[in-house]
Design brief:
Two copies of one chain form a homodimer. By secondary structure, chain A is α/β, with parallel strands linked by helices. Helix content of chain A is 34%, strand content 26%. Chain A folds into three domains: 130 residues, 3-Layer(aba) Sandwich (Rossmann fold); 167 residues, Dihydrodipicolinate Reductase, domain 2, CATH 3.30.360; 81 residues, ACT domain (Alpha-Beta Plaits), CATH 3.30.70. In chain A, the strands form two sheets. In chain A, strands 6, 7, 8, 9, 10, 11, 12, 13, 14, 15, 16 and 17 form a twelve-stranded mixed β-sheet that branches. In chain A, strands 2-1-3-4-5 form a five-stranded parallel β-sheet, with helices on both faces. In chain A, helix 1 crosses helix 11, helix 3 packs parallel to helix 4 and helix 6 crosses helix 7. The longest helix of chain A has 17 residues.
Chain lengths: 431, 431
């Protein structure tokens, strides 16, 4: 008899797991028609079994221990929705793949940290490890890189990969909110978690970027050579200054192949108002791929939330049902490239500097001297006196100069006794 | 011995076929690494064998007759690049599938006309028929609908699907060119063919829209219920009027599921300047998908040209190499839905009317009376005297009213003796 059911275990029943559970039950017929297989949730597991849920789960479906999912003979796919790079999520996914069970996960931290190791096990055991939901939720970027754009040699992939940060920056800009008020608003709307630290410090984008880099350049994941900053030091003054200068501030992830070396960077950037990416507002995500022969491709959509993530999870479940088993990163582990990476020290940027100082004689000349010593030349300088008039904010747009010299300048300026706070450096991305 | 070559025949060696031929030869190693199969062009065929080409093709690769490709035992994939819904392209693809050979095609007219029949044969014979390149070139929309967005129930898919028309409209708008000059410019840049009729009369978009409709709504292709108009009646005055009113004119393809019925339409539309799609300029294509649960997804990229099309063709070749055979429209022919379609007669639009008239007494009152009789009420009216001052152009924005009544009004107005030319009707799409 031909098998006509696909048995699924969902481990982790937070917002996303719950939505997926309900979706799979509700859309059984639809998915059966599309795949010729009945999606069948056989087991679930969650930290808090007794938590009140708005839907009921038959008792027999509950696993005693989440790791039991990897020992049952009749499970075809485990959907890991625990989260976190280590701990239970790691245990679950490693033992599932070792026990030859297919895995679908939304866990970007896990894939960024252990993706290469996991891929090796999956390939050896001829099972699938799919992670569309780990990168930009509803934006089908992983599949597009592995399939739709497979013909292309990619030289740059970049974009807005974190809806929380983008929502906060948009609110600060459009509603003229302070950072903390924009964050509160995001939390009240469910766009930011109670503990939003990994969204705000750039770590979330960094995980996604590392995965996209490996997929784009057929390389291994590189956790070492990456510059990571979040939006937590951007304030309303920076946003207003940017506006006056014709820019928006966006948190970008950028992976770029130049001179046979890849740089990975996650930073807030000033980008021209007129650029496409400057207009991506709110919780949207957008990924831009520059490939040869295809040219520039843009994919834009909702980056997070139970709905968008479920769309991605289900696309992975369907591709396991309908496809041959393929290497998780498209190319077999042993054929992926040992490509060279480098940090951004020697990359040249034009930058925005904001130096808030006490109004003392000779301050400006000392600043410009410090910059000149580091070969940082000034393209534009605006001195804004504070309302109190005892202090000033000096805004500088520099010419292009090596990043290491920008950093050195900032560090030297930081020590000056006329400084009110650490100077700001926001690089300008030419797009 | 395990097979390690995939044998490909390319039939049709125009711009696209030639580019593909060179691409496959140049990227043999790259593709072998990605697929574990060597892409091997075994045969080619073209109408004009003796034409001077900038690259040489070994004599033994030339087929005597293009249909021989379907009779050779050692061909795994035929790439059809002849074009046209009937004639040689049709013969080739039908007999290839009947002879159990996989087909990859960029032929939108063929798939729109015979896609359902071809899909049945492909499924029966367990071979693949892939057509990513037929719809919006480098925009991986077919695969995204079949795979990345498979979880979603789609209620609307629309966008800019014709780069030639979009380039012309953009040039008329930005460089203030007349239609014929913009067309000449497009032709000189290679963005329009010598005979650009199917690009300009909407047929090209219609073919793509029919295919996207079938994929989005899991239905059969419907060639009957579709409203098709091109940009060939839009002139610079319309574009300037639209600008003054806060709109851009774009040729859109729209497929929309409302009240369990699907409408398909291809028309120039006025859309708000501030909308995303109004900013898609030049030869770019963009597809917007409204799905549940994913929300709105946008995919944007180069819609035509040898490079973008080759990217799509190769993605299809790779998916045949790496995937299981799947139904061409994702769902088996016998399970696709007999969904209801309806024409746009009863759909309500607000519209732009332009009525160029001789300056005679009572003209305006006659126009408004004619409109009122047809229940078309006026939201905004501007009367622009011609420079000669003997004639006027009356621009009207109507309130929402059934399409059939707009058409009726235009037809009645057309007969008036004070008319200088047939009145213009351009619908407004609320986006």
């Amino acid at each position: 008899m031909k098998k006509n059911k696909i048995n699924i275990a969902i481990v982790g029943l937070g917002n996303i797991g719950s939505y997926l559970y309900k979706y799979l039950n509700k859309n059984k017929n639809y998915l059966t028609k599309k795949t010729n297989m009945i999606p069948n949730i056989v087991f679930v597991s969650a930290k808090n079994k007794s938590k009140k849920r708005k839907f009921s789960i038959p008792k027999k479906k509950w696993l005693k221990n989440y790791l039991d999912a990897t020992k049952k003979k009749n499970i075809d796919i485990i959907v890991e929705l625990i989260g976190g790079a280590d701990g239970p999520a790691k245990n679950l996914v490693f033992s599932a793949l070792r026990n030859k069970i297919n895995v679908v996960t939304a866990n970007k931290a896990l894939i960024a940290k252990y993706g290469d190791k996991l891929a090796k096990i999956a390939e050896k055991n001829k099972v699938s490890l799919e992670f569309e939901a780990a990168v930009c939720g509803g934006v089908p970027i992983v599949k597009s890189l592995k399939e739709g754009l497979v013909a292309n040699s990619i030289n740059k992939i970049y974009g807005i990969f974190n809806g929380t940060s983008n929502f906060i920056l948009t609110s600060m800009d459009k509603q003229n909110l302070e950072f903390r008020d924009a964050l509160k608003k995001a939390q009240s709307l469910g766009y930011a978690e109670k503990n939003p630290i990994s969204d705000l410090n750039g770590d979330d984008v960094a995980s996604k970027l590392k995965i996209l880099t490996a997929l784009s350049f057929n390389s291994y994941i590189n956790n070492k050579d990456i510059s990571v900053e979040g939006i937590n030091k951007v304030d309303r003054t920076d946003i207003n200054n940017a506006n006056l200068l014709g820019y928006k501030i966006k948190l970008l992830g950028v992976s770029h192949l130049e001179h046979k070396k890849v740089t990975q960077r996650v930073n807030p950037y000033l980008i021209k108002k007129s650029s496409y990416i400057a207009k991506i507002d709110g919780v949207l995500n957008a990924v831009i791929i520059e490939g040869n022969p295809v040219g520039e491709t843009v994919i834009q959509g909702e980056g997070a939330g139970p709905q968008a993530t479920t769309s991605a999870l289900v696309s992975d479940i369907v591709s396991i049902i309908k496809g041959k088993v393929r290497p998780p990163f498209m190319i077999s582990a042993n054929k992926r490239k040992k490509i060279q990476f480098e940090n951004i020290d020697n990359k040249k940027f034009s930058a925005y500097l904001r130096i808030d100082v006490k109004d003392k004689h000779g301050v400006l000349s000392n600043i410009t001297k410090t910059l000149a010593k580091n070969k940082v030349s000034i393209k534009r300088l605006i001195q804004n006196p504070f309302k109190s008039k005892k202090n000033s904010s000096i805004v500088i747009i520099t010419h292009e100069v090596k990043d290491v010299l920008l950093i050195k300048s900032i560090n030297q300026l930081s020590k000056k006794d006329y400084l009110i706070q650490k100077p700001k450096l926001i690089r300008i991305e030419k797009i």
